[in-house]
């Protein structure tokens, strides 16, 4: 059986496409899309399509047509705004024999709302980061010494690091609340930060890949570096969380460590930007996805070496576009 | 004769090291340094050294020792703060048989002072961007309609895009001048921007590589993309400027276009961040450097195809560091 995979909105995620192409050799094709012909990852695939922006009417129909034409077996997206779309249209894909690699729509939507996600983490019985939507509740805890300045202020929804501010005074805080709606006040977490890549088998619903890396903060923050970590307490916590939460497919979890305790900060229900570190360490999620699409349950692949560094640098795609 | 090249402060410039390694095959070795073992480009070279930061006492002596030990023929640096150091210590290197690929110290220093550089461009008879160090002179031209808001305000010295602000009112401008010293007010240039890579032969003093690319501004500005350009007027202007200015070795020139006229904005007397576009288009500066170090004058290599796009993406280096 041929396994053809369609990856949407590939942008600059060349490595992900390279990995899939390598794993699909002899098994099927990797087809990709983007709205811009200047997305370099387009040119890594067996075939690519330039498609409308995801906000355009008829977008999902265009994707469904590509699925039919290219005999697609599985589909996934690499950008946040498209994950909800994919999850909400799940049955439109399964009806034509295509499996979306995505969690349930309600879980995806909740994952993009930092306040709701935080409550969810608490309900499941895990440490969560102290979070406030209302100034009054924050001031109450401030008076009772349950929290102190500085704090982080960020939009409740929206992508990770846009408009995140470290706020030091009531004046600054009130000024921000006057200017913007839907802000979240969060306890400052500035010790250690981990990124965890997890693949939850589509058939067995068990985590069959789990790779922990500590993010290393660099000057100017422009160069991404990380180190692979083996930590039994953190491993068990993530395994437990993922099993209880009900995600499926590939997810990327951000976790903070403060005074020896771990705090689950957010889940991106897609391949994280740091996934190449996991793949290069032997955690082969593309292969696990292909196995699932071929109706095979994966045996867990949870072994990797600690102390391995990943350092990003710029590679280039050179292309004449006619 | 063996040609061994030492490249300093390589950071994440893996591509540059790869190109040199490829061109040196059978001819000599590429040795590199950085102050951090998490600089991925270290691991592309034949050999690497972790060295003190360039501001540490004895730094230049450390580099000279490496030159002697490794029988280095030529040396260059990839970061701005080190260029002046290399230029000022030029004779210390030539005395031990090492050729620094760098322009004269006075030219290097001047290139990092945006006001002085601007006057230099004018003196040589080229269009320059209207620039003011003093509020009074700016206001004079503002009153005479020679310039209008918005303007760019940036530090006179210092790296390209740190703290550059678009300023729209007198109030904003005066607030900035109160808070910071050594600011420069410049006419807003927001039409087209070009990056030009030029290699000026160390023996003939002629430009023997000249590659023009238009920088393409992308959303969020985080992904670098450019397109190769052939434009006779711009080519002749750059050729003329470089010949008159007296730079040597590899330089990167930023040029703006406004209403059909070109304005030379700055020169970085080192490999620019976009050089891979030139190399991948056949403009082989590492080979020209090797030729020069072997005492051969280069024949000009000024031919390349226009309309070729470069798109950057993240590659990763994986490394156990003991």
From TrEMBL, chains A, B:
Keyword Ligase: no
Sample GO molecular function, one term: metal ion binding
InterPro entries assigned: ATP-grasp (IPR011761), ATP-grasp_PylC-type (IPR003806), ATP_grasp_subdomain_1 (IPR013815), PylC_N (IPR048764)
Keywords of this entry: ATP-binding, Nucleotide-binding
Presence of the UniProt keyword Membrane in the record: no
Pfam families (alphabetical): ATP-grasp_3 (PF02655), PylC-like_N (PF21360)
Residue span, ATP-grasp domain: 118-294
Superkingdom in the source lineage: Bacteria
NCBIfam families: PRK12767.1-5
UniProt-recorded name of the protein: ATP-grasp domain-containing protein
């Amino acid at each position: 059986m041929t396994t053809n995979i369609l990856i949407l909105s590939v942008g600059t995620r060349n490595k992900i496409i390279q990995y899939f192409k390598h794993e699909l050799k002899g098994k099927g094709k990797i087809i990709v899309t983007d709205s811009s012909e200047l997305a370099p990852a387009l040119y890594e695939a067996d075939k690519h399509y330039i498609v409308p922006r995801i906000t355009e009417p008829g977008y999902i129909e265009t994707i469904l047509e590509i699925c039919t034409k290219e005999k697609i077996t599985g589909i996934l997206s690499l950008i946040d705004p498209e994950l909800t779309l994919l999850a909400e249209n799940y049955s439109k894909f399964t009806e034509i024999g295509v499996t979306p690699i995505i969690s349930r729509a309600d879980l995806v939507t909740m994952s993009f709302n930092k306040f709701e996600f935080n409550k969810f983490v608490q309900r499941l019985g895990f440490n969560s980061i102290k979070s406030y939507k209302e100034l009054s509740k924050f001031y109450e805890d401030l008076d009772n010494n349950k929290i102190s300045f500085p704090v982080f202020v960020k939009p409740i929804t929206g992508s990770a690091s846009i408009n995140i501010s470290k706020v030091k005074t009531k004046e600054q805080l009130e000024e921000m609340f006057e200017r913007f709606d839907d802000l979240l006040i969060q306890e400052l977490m500035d010790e250690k930060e981990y990124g965890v890549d997890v693949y939850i088998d589509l058939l067995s619903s068990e985590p069959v890949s789990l790779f922990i890396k500590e993010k290393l903060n660099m000057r100017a923050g422009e160069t991404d570096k990380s180190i692979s970590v083996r930590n039994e307490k953190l491993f068990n916590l993530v395994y437990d969380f993922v099993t209880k939460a009900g995600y499926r497919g590939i997810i990327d979890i951000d976790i903070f460590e403060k005074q020896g305790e771990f705090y689950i900060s957010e889940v991106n229900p897609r391949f994280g930007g740091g996934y190449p570190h996991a793949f290069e360490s032997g955690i082969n999620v593309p292969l696990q996805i292909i196995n699932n699409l071929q109706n095979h349950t994966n045996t867990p692949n949870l072994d990797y070496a600690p102390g391995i560094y990943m350092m990003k640098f710029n590679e280039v795609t050179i292309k004449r576009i006619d």
